[in-house]
Amino acid sequence: MSELDSARNGDDATAESVAARVAEAEECVADLRDAKQRLATVESEIDSVGEDAVVDAADAYRKAIRLLDRYEGSATGTGDFQAYVEFQDKFLGLVEGRDDDTPASEAFAAAGERLDQRRLSESDFDAAREDLEPAAEYVDLLDRREDAEEAVAKARRDARLCRRELDGEIDERAEWLAVGEADLDAPVAELTDPIEAYNRAVREEFDEFYASASIAEVVDFLDRAEAFPLVEFRSPPRDLREFAAESPDADEPVPTLLEYADYSGSKLDHYAEDPGLLQTTVAVHRTYLERLSGEPLTVSLPPPPAAELRFRTRERLSLLGRFADEGTIAQLRAVRDLSRREDYRELSRAARAHRELDDDELAAVRSGAAEAELERLRDARDRLAAELDGEADG
Protein backbone atom coordinates (compact mmCIF):
# COMPACT_ATOMS: atom_id res chain seq x y z
CA MET A 1 0.00 0.00 0.00
CA SER A 2 1.35 3.42 -0.93
CA GLU A 3 1.83 6.15 1.67
CA LEU A 4 -1.01 8.10 0.02
CA ASP A 5 -3.38 5.12 0.27
CA SER A 6 -2.41 4.58 3.90
CA ALA A 7 -3.12 8.23 4.69
CA ARG A 8 -6.51 8.03 2.96
CA ASN A 9 -7.45 4.89 4.88
CA GLY A 10 -6.38 6.51 8.14
CA ASP A 11 -8.40 9.61 7.34
CA ASP A 12 -11.48 7.52 6.58
CA ALA A 13 -11.22 5.51 9.81
CA THR A 14 -10.79 8.50 12.10
CA ALA A 15 -13.38 10.54 10.18
CA GLU A 16 -15.97 7.80 10.70
CA SER A 17 -15.24 7.79 14.44
CA VAL A 18 -15.58 11.56 14.66
CA ALA A 19 -18.75 11.57 12.55
CA ALA A 20 -20.33 9.01 14.88
CA ARG A 21 -19.39 11.03 17.97
CA VAL A 22 -20.66 14.30 16.44
CA ALA A 23 -23.91 12.62 15.38
CA GLU A 24 -24.38 11.33 18.93
CA ALA A 25 -23.85 14.84 20.32
CA GLU A 26 -26.31 16.34 17.83
CA GLU A 27 -28.88 13.70 18.77
CA CYS A 28 -28.43 14.61 22.44
CA VAL A 29 -28.92 18.29 21.62
CA ALA A 30 -32.08 17.50 19.62
CA ASP A 31 -33.46 15.24 22.36
CA LEU A 32 -32.84 17.87 25.02
CA ARG A 33 -34.42 20.63 22.95
CA ASP A 34 -37.45 18.46 22.21
CA ALA A 35 -37.88 17.49 25.88
CA LYS A 36 -37.57 21.11 27.01
CA GLN A 37 -40.10 22.21 24.37
CA ARG A 38 -42.57 19.53 25.49
CA LEU A 39 -42.21 20.70 29.08
CA ALA A 40 -42.62 24.35 28.10
CA THR A 41 -45.78 23.52 26.14
CA VAL A 42 -47.50 21.66 28.97
CA GLU A 43 -46.41 24.26 31.53
CA SER A 44 -47.92 26.95 29.31
CA GLU A 45 -51.20 25.02 29.25
CA ILE A 46 -51.18 24.72 33.03
CA ASP A 47 -50.32 28.39 33.47
CA SER A 48 -53.21 29.40 31.24
CA VAL A 49 -55.59 27.74 33.72
CA GLY A 50 -53.64 28.33 36.90
CA GLU A 51 -51.44 25.90 38.81
CA ASP A 52 -53.67 25.76 41.90
CA ALA A 53 -56.84 25.37 39.86
CA VAL A 54 -55.40 22.51 37.80
CA VAL A 55 -54.14 20.70 40.90
CA ASP A 56 -57.50 21.17 42.64
CA ALA A 57 -59.49 19.88 39.65
CA ALA A 58 -57.21 16.89 39.20
CA ASP A 59 -57.39 16.05 42.89
CA ALA A 60 -61.19 16.32 42.90
CA TYR A 61 -61.43 14.09 39.81
CA ARG A 62 -59.21 11.39 41.35
CA LYS A 63 -61.22 11.42 44.58
CA ALA A 64 -64.52 11.26 42.66
CA ILE A 65 -63.37 8.28 40.59
CA ARG A 66 -62.15 6.48 43.71
CA LEU A 67 -65.57 6.97 45.35
CA LEU A 68 -67.35 5.67 42.26
CA ASP A 69 -65.10 2.61 42.13
CA ARG A 70 -65.42 1.96 45.88
CA TYR A 71 -69.20 2.24 46.22
CA GLU A 72 -70.46 1.01 42.85
CA GLY A 73 -71.14 -2.48 44.14
CA SER A 74 -72.62 -1.56 47.50
CA ALA A 75 -74.58 1.65 46.88
CA THR A 76 -76.55 0.52 43.81
CA GLY A 77 -79.86 -1.24 43.47
CA THR A 78 -81.28 -2.67 46.70
CA GLY A 79 -77.84 -3.02 48.25
CA ASP A 80 -76.52 -1.68 51.53
CA PHE A 81 -78.51 1.42 52.49
CA GLN A 82 -75.76 2.58 54.83
CA ALA A 83 -73.28 2.41 51.95
CA TYR A 84 -75.68 4.41 49.80
CA VAL A 85 -75.93 7.13 52.47
CA GLU A 86 -72.14 7.25 52.91
CA PHE A 87 -71.61 7.49 49.17
CA GLN A 88 -74.17 10.26 48.71
CA ASP A 89 -72.67 12.24 51.57
CA LYS A 90 -69.09 11.93 50.35
CA PHE A 91 -69.68 12.26 46.61
CA LEU A 92 -72.13 15.13 46.71
CA GLY A 93 -70.01 16.89 49.29
CA LEU A 94 -67.09 16.64 46.91
CA VAL A 95 -68.74 17.79 43.69
CA GLU A 96 -71.36 20.26 44.86
CA GLY A 97 -70.58 23.80 45.74
CA ARG A 98 -67.62 24.15 43.37
CA ASP A 99 -67.38 27.68 41.96
CA ASP A 100 -68.57 28.13 38.42
CA ASP A 101 -65.19 29.59 37.42
CA THR A 102 -63.21 26.56 38.61
CA PRO A 103 -62.00 24.06 35.98
CA ALA A 104 -64.54 21.42 34.91
CA SER A 105 -67.16 22.83 37.30
CA GLU A 106 -69.93 21.84 34.89
CA ALA A 107 -68.62 18.25 34.74
CA PHE A 108 -68.64 17.91 38.52
CA ALA A 109 -72.09 19.53 38.73
CA ALA A 110 -73.49 17.17 36.09
CA ALA A 111 -72.12 14.11 37.87
CA GLY A 112 -73.54 15.33 41.18
CA GLU A 113 -76.97 15.99 39.70
CA ARG A 114 -77.04 12.56 38.05
CA LEU A 115 -76.28 10.74 41.31
CA ASP A 116 -78.50 12.87 43.56
CA GLN A 117 -81.45 10.44 43.48
CA ARG A 118 -83.08 7.90 45.78
CA ARG A 119 -81.96 4.84 43.92
CA LEU A 120 -78.76 4.31 41.91
CA SER A 121 -77.83 1.78 39.26
CA GLU A 122 -74.53 0.73 37.80
CA SER A 123 -75.47 2.61 34.63
CA ASP A 124 -75.75 5.78 36.73
CA PHE A 125 -72.22 5.24 37.91
CA ASP A 126 -71.01 4.68 34.34
CA ALA A 127 -72.78 7.82 33.19
CA ALA A 128 -71.24 9.81 36.07
CA ARG A 129 -67.81 8.70 34.95
CA GLU A 130 -68.60 10.04 31.48
CA ASP A 131 -69.83 13.29 33.00
CA LEU A 132 -66.49 13.65 34.77
CA GLU A 133 -64.36 13.07 31.66
CA PRO A 134 -63.68 16.80 31.07
CA ALA A 135 -62.01 16.93 34.49
CA ALA A 136 -59.70 14.05 33.51
CA GLU A 137 -57.97 16.55 31.22
CA TYR A 138 -56.39 18.18 34.29
CA VAL A 139 -55.05 14.88 35.57
CA ASP A 140 -53.64 14.33 32.10
CA LEU A 141 -52.03 17.78 32.20
CA LEU A 142 -50.21 17.00 35.44
CA ASP A 143 -49.21 13.54 34.18
CA ARG A 144 -47.89 15.07 30.98
CA ARG A 145 -45.89 17.61 32.95
CA GLU A 146 -44.41 14.87 35.13
CA ASP A 147 -43.50 12.82 32.05
CA ALA A 148 -41.98 15.90 30.40
CA GLU A 149 -39.95 16.70 33.51
CA GLU A 150 -38.64 13.13 33.58
CA ALA A 151 -37.83 13.36 29.86
CA VAL A 152 -35.90 16.60 30.42
CA ALA A 153 -34.02 15.06 33.35
CA LYS A 154 -33.11 12.00 31.26
CA ALA A 155 -32.11 14.11 28.28
CA ARG A 156 -29.91 16.23 30.55
CA ARG A 157 -28.27 13.11 32.01
CA ASP A 158 -27.63 11.72 28.54
CA ALA A 159 -26.28 15.08 27.37
CA ARG A 160 -23.95 15.40 30.36
CA LEU A 161 -22.65 11.88 29.76
CA CYS A 162 -22.16 12.68 26.09
CA ARG A 163 -20.31 15.88 27.02
CA ARG A 164 -17.99 13.97 29.39
CA GLU A 165 -17.27 11.44 26.65
CA LEU A 166 -16.63 14.25 24.18
CA ASP A 167 -14.30 15.96 26.65
CA GLY A 168 -12.39 12.71 27.07
CA GLU A 169 -12.07 12.15 23.34
CA ILE A 170 -11.09 15.78 22.75
CA ASP A 171 -8.37 15.51 25.40
CA GLU A 172 -7.15 12.23 23.94
CA ARG A 173 -7.10 13.53 20.37
CA ALA A 174 -5.45 16.77 21.41
CA GLU A 175 -2.79 14.71 23.16
CA TRP A 176 -2.06 12.43 20.24
CA LEU A 177 -2.22 15.38 17.86
CA ALA A 178 0.50 17.06 19.91
CA VAL A 179 2.47 13.81 20.00
CA GLY A 180 1.95 13.24 16.30
CA GLU A 181 3.33 16.65 15.45
CA ALA A 182 6.77 15.37 16.41
CA ASP A 183 9.34 14.83 13.68
CA LEU A 184 8.27 11.34 12.64
CA ASP A 185 11.35 10.98 10.46
CA ALA A 186 13.77 11.63 13.35
CA PRO A 187 16.34 8.84 13.95
CA VAL A 188 14.39 7.31 16.83
CA ALA A 189 16.49 4.13 16.81
CA GLU A 190 19.43 6.12 18.18
CA LEU A 191 17.35 6.56 21.32
CA THR A 192 15.36 3.35 21.50
CA ASP A 193 18.03 0.82 20.53
CA PRO A 194 20.33 1.50 23.54
CA ILE A 195 17.34 1.43 25.91
CA GLU A 196 16.02 -1.83 24.48
CA ALA A 197 19.50 -3.38 24.64
CA TYR A 198 19.88 -2.40 28.30
CA ASN A 199 16.38 -3.64 29.15
CA ARG A 200 17.09 -7.05 27.62
CA ALA A 201 20.39 -7.29 29.47
CA VAL A 202 19.04 -6.30 32.87
CA ARG A 203 16.08 -8.68 32.60
CA GLU A 204 18.41 -11.57 31.75
CA GLU A 205 20.87 -10.73 34.51
CA PHE A 206 18.16 -10.40 37.12
CA ASP A 207 16.71 -13.75 36.03
CA GLU A 208 20.15 -15.32 36.53
CA PHE A 209 20.51 -13.64 39.93
CA TYR A 210 17.05 -14.84 40.95
CA ALA A 211 17.78 -18.39 39.82
CA SER A 212 21.22 -18.75 41.43
CA ALA A 213 21.52 -16.40 44.42
CA SER A 214 20.25 -17.43 47.84
CA ILE A 215 16.92 -16.13 49.01
CA ALA A 216 18.86 -14.22 51.68
CA GLU A 217 20.73 -12.33 48.93
CA VAL A 218 17.54 -11.69 46.94
CA VAL A 219 15.67 -10.34 49.96
CA ASP A 220 18.69 -8.24 50.92
CA PHE A 221 18.67 -6.75 47.42
CA LEU A 222 14.95 -6.00 47.68
CA ASP A 223 15.48 -4.36 51.06
CA ARG A 224 18.21 -2.22 49.53
CA ALA A 225 15.89 -1.24 46.64
CA GLU A 226 13.44 0.31 49.11
CA ALA A 227 15.85 3.24 49.48
CA PHE A 228 15.26 4.10 45.80
CA PRO A 229 11.62 5.15 45.21
CA LEU A 230 12.00 5.24 41.41
CA VAL A 231 12.81 1.53 41.38
CA GLU A 232 9.41 0.09 42.09
CA PHE A 233 9.91 -3.36 43.58
CA ARG A 234 7.25 -4.55 46.01
CA SER A 235 8.61 -4.72 49.55
CA PRO A 236 9.23 -8.25 50.87
CA PRO A 237 6.64 -9.41 53.43
CA ARG A 238 7.89 -9.24 57.02
CA ASP A 239 7.84 -13.00 57.66
CA LEU A 240 9.76 -13.57 54.42
CA ARG A 241 12.40 -11.13 55.64
CA GLU A 242 12.60 -13.06 58.91
CA PHE A 243 12.94 -16.35 57.03
CA ALA A 244 15.77 -14.95 54.89
CA ALA A 245 17.57 -13.65 57.96
CA GLU A 246 17.07 -16.55 60.35
CA SER A 247 16.22 -19.79 58.56
CA PRO A 248 18.99 -22.36 58.07
CA ASP A 249 17.49 -22.90 54.60
CA ALA A 250 17.96 -19.28 53.54
CA ASP A 251 21.11 -20.12 51.58
CA GLU A 252 19.02 -21.89 48.95
CA PRO A 253 17.89 -20.10 45.75
CA VAL A 254 14.28 -19.03 45.45
CA PRO A 255 13.33 -21.56 42.70
CA THR A 256 14.74 -24.39 44.82
CA LEU A 257 12.76 -23.31 47.87
CA LEU A 258 9.57 -23.02 45.79
CA GLU A 259 10.15 -26.55 44.57
CA TYR A 260 10.70 -27.75 48.14
CA ALA A 261 7.47 -26.09 49.22
CA ASP A 262 5.55 -28.52 46.98
CA TYR A 263 7.08 -31.59 48.61
CA SER A 264 5.20 -33.69 51.10
CA GLY A 265 6.27 -33.38 54.73
CA SER A 266 8.15 -36.66 54.78
CA LYS A 267 10.02 -35.90 51.57
CA LEU A 268 10.83 -32.34 52.63
CA ASP A 269 12.50 -33.67 55.77
CA HIS A 270 15.32 -34.95 53.54
CA TYR A 271 15.97 -31.56 51.92
CA ALA A 272 15.22 -28.80 54.41
CA GLU A 273 16.62 -28.19 57.86
CA ASP A 274 13.44 -26.44 59.01
CA PRO A 275 10.62 -27.93 56.89
CA GLY A 276 7.80 -26.38 58.90
CA LEU A 277 9.07 -22.82 58.60
CA LEU A 278 9.79 -23.28 54.90
CA GLN A 279 6.25 -24.47 54.16
CA THR A 280 4.53 -21.81 56.28
CA THR A 281 6.60 -18.97 54.82
CA VAL A 282 7.80 -19.71 51.30
CA ALA A 283 4.62 -21.48 50.24
CA VAL A 284 2.44 -18.66 51.57
CA HIS A 285 4.35 -16.09 49.52
CA ARG A 286 4.70 -18.15 46.34
CA THR A 287 2.87 -15.57 44.18
CA TYR A 288 5.09 -12.73 45.41
CA LEU A 289 8.27 -14.73 44.79
CA GLU A 290 7.23 -16.03 41.39
CA ARG A 291 6.39 -12.52 40.17
CA LEU A 292 9.81 -11.09 40.95
CA SER A 293 11.56 -9.91 37.80
CA GLY A 294 13.98 -7.31 36.58
CA GLU A 295 11.17 -5.20 35.12
CA PRO A 296 11.39 -2.45 37.80
CA LEU A 297 15.03 -1.96 36.75
CA THR A 298 14.21 -1.34 33.09
CA VAL A 299 13.79 2.06 31.41
CA SER A 300 10.38 2.82 29.91
CA LEU A 301 9.74 3.32 26.23
CA PRO A 302 9.00 5.98 25.24
CA PRO A 303 11.58 7.29 27.70
CA PRO A 304 10.77 9.92 30.35
CA PRO A 305 11.92 13.55 30.17
CA ALA A 306 15.67 14.04 30.31
CA ALA A 307 15.89 15.11 33.97
CA GLU A 308 13.72 12.20 35.08
CA LEU A 309 15.77 9.78 33.01
CA ARG A 310 18.93 10.93 34.78
CA PHE A 311 17.31 10.40 38.20
CA ARG A 312 16.04 6.96 37.25
CA THR A 313 19.36 5.77 35.82
CA ARG A 314 21.19 7.10 38.87
CA GLU A 315 19.06 4.97 41.20
CA ARG A 316 19.43 1.89 39.00
CA LEU A 317 23.20 2.31 38.83
CA SER A 318 23.27 2.25 42.63
CA LEU A 319 21.61 -1.18 42.59
CA LEU A 320 23.07 -2.95 39.57
CA GLY A 321 26.39 -3.60 41.27
CA ARG A 322 24.62 -6.12 43.49
CA PHE A 323 24.21 -8.60 40.65
CA ALA A 324 24.95 -7.15 37.16
CA ASP A 325 28.20 -7.36 35.23
CA GLU A 326 30.14 -4.39 33.90
CA GLY A 327 28.64 -4.75 30.44
CA THR A 328 25.09 -4.18 31.67
CA ILE A 329 26.22 -1.31 33.89
CA ALA A 330 27.96 0.28 30.91
CA GLN A 331 24.76 -0.05 28.87
CA LEU A 332 22.83 1.80 31.58
CA ARG A 333 25.43 4.57 31.62
CA ALA A 334 25.00 4.87 27.86
CA VAL A 335 21.23 5.22 28.39
CA ARG A 336 21.87 7.94 30.98
CA ASP A 337 24.10 9.80 28.51
CA LEU A 338 21.25 9.90 25.98
CA SER A 339 19.57 12.51 28.17
CA ARG A 340 22.43 14.92 27.41
CA ARG A 341 21.83 14.88 23.66
CA GLU A 342 20.65 18.19 22.27
CA ASP A 343 17.98 16.41 20.27
CA TYR A 344 16.80 14.21 23.19
CA ARG A 345 13.42 15.95 23.52
CA GLU A 346 12.79 15.73 19.78
CA LEU A 347 13.78 12.06 19.67
CA SER A 348 11.70 11.15 22.73
CA ARG A 349 8.63 12.87 21.27
CA ALA A 350 9.12 10.99 18.01
CA ALA A 351 9.56 7.72 19.91
CA ARG A 352 6.36 8.39 21.81
CA ALA A 353 4.50 9.13 18.58
CA HIS A 354 5.63 5.89 16.93
CA ARG A 355 4.81 3.85 20.03
CA GLU A 356 1.50 5.43 21.08
CA LEU A 357 -0.18 6.17 17.75
CA ASP A 358 -1.39 3.54 15.33
CA ASP A 359 -1.05 3.84 11.57
CA ASP A 360 -4.50 5.42 11.16
CA GLU A 361 -3.76 8.09 13.77
CA LEU A 362 -0.36 8.88 12.31
CA ALA A 363 -1.90 9.13 8.84
CA ALA A 364 -4.57 11.52 10.13
CA VAL A 365 -1.93 13.74 11.74
CA ARG A 366 0.22 13.81 8.59
CA SER A 367 -2.74 14.70 6.35
CA GLY A 368 -4.10 17.44 8.61
CA ALA A 369 -7.35 15.54 9.11
CA ALA A 370 -6.70 15.10 12.84
CA GLU A 371 -6.71 18.83 13.48
CA ALA A 372 -9.93 19.33 11.49
CA GLU A 373 -11.58 16.44 13.35
CA LEU A 374 -10.54 17.89 16.68
CA GLU A 375 -12.24 21.15 15.77
CA ARG A 376 -15.42 19.28 14.79
CA LEU A 377 -15.45 17.57 18.17
CA ARG A 378 -14.89 20.86 19.99
CA ASP A 379 -17.71 22.52 18.05
CA ALA A 380 -20.06 19.64 18.90
CA ARG A 381 -19.07 19.82 22.56
CA ASP A 382 -19.65 23.59 22.63
CA ARG A 383 -23.13 23.25 21.11
CA LEU A 384 -24.00 20.56 23.61
CA ALA A 385 -22.66 22.63 26.52
CA ALA A 386 -24.64 25.67 25.33
CA GLU A 387 -27.85 23.64 25.21
CA LEU A 388 -27.19 22.26 28.68
CA ASP A 389 -26.58 25.76 29.98
CA GLY A 390 -29.70 27.09 28.25
CA GLU A 391 -27.74 29.46 26.03
CA ALA A 392 -28.40 27.86 22.62
CA ASP A 393 -30.50 29.66 20.09
CA GLY A 394 -33.76 28.22 18.88
Automatic annotation (TrEMBL):
Keywords annotated in UniProt: Coiled coil
Coiled coil ranges: 25-52, 138-165
Superkingdom as given in the UniProt entry: Archaea
Region (Disordered): 1-20
Biased composition (Basic and acidic residues): 1-11
A Pfam entry, by short name: DUF7118
Protein name: Uncharacterized protein
Source organism of the structure: Halobellus ruber
